[in-house]
């Protein structure tokens, strides 16, 4: 119900249903000794003349405002015969109703509309009527209204990254999705898991960083994130697609090398090598000495 001191009031109605209005007068003040007085109700029933078979009306009509930039409405067709759909729309500030400029089609029938260049307002109701094309068989009209901020779908979060801090925590950070949705109007849902586990979920997160305080040691972790308009900026909305999955894996540290041990090993190896070389030279010299001595003795015996 609405109370007003004016003699005019404007409201939106679904012309596809019966319109019922009740009106009465309320008095209170010096004229009534501060007593509340109510008149009798005046009842007004009205309805728009409906054309076409109910089976011709659209089914499953829905709209999504992608990134707060492009509005796309789609529907399923009813039972048509020599007919096609026309989408009409109006929003406060427009001089009159407009028709869709860019239809989506399937087998020649209009099944959706993309509002490409139209500048639409947030926090202002958009009224839509899907009816029949002029000059064709009539179609039962369908009426819809919504506010764009309540049907927004953000893009997926960008540049998801996991790193390990000096105190051993895993830190997750990302950038808000590209688009016209203000960053303070977004909330995030984070899902994470070890590669062999099921997804764990963190909901209603409003920052673009998150630290995992995990008591058990982890060797690997995978994360993906999605975004939605939060309740402070909209009554409802659609979740974005999930971001690209980002994974972190523990890298085994390279064992530290004991320099003293390396030096000692090197010196020992050099000493052993020197001894080996000396031994080899000694054997060679001895062999040569005995060979010469034997040759000399052999010559003496011959002569």
UniProtKB/TrEMBL annotation:
The keyword Transmembrane helix applies. Pfam families: CRLF2-like_D2 (PF21605), IL6Ra-bind (PF09240). GO terms for molecular function: cytokine receptor activity. It comes from the Eukaryota. Its main location: membrane. The chain crosses the membrane at residues 260-285. Keywords: Glycoprotein, Membrane, Receptor, Signal, Transmembrane, Transmembrane helix. One of its GO terms (cellular component) is external side of plasma membrane. Gene3D superfamilies: Immunoglobulins (2.60.40.10). It is a single-pass type I membrane protein. It is found in: Membrane. Residues 156-250 form the Fibronectin type-III domain. Belongs to the type I cytokine receptor family. Type 5 subfamily. This is Fibronectin type-III domain-containing protein. It comes from Pyxicephalus adspersus.
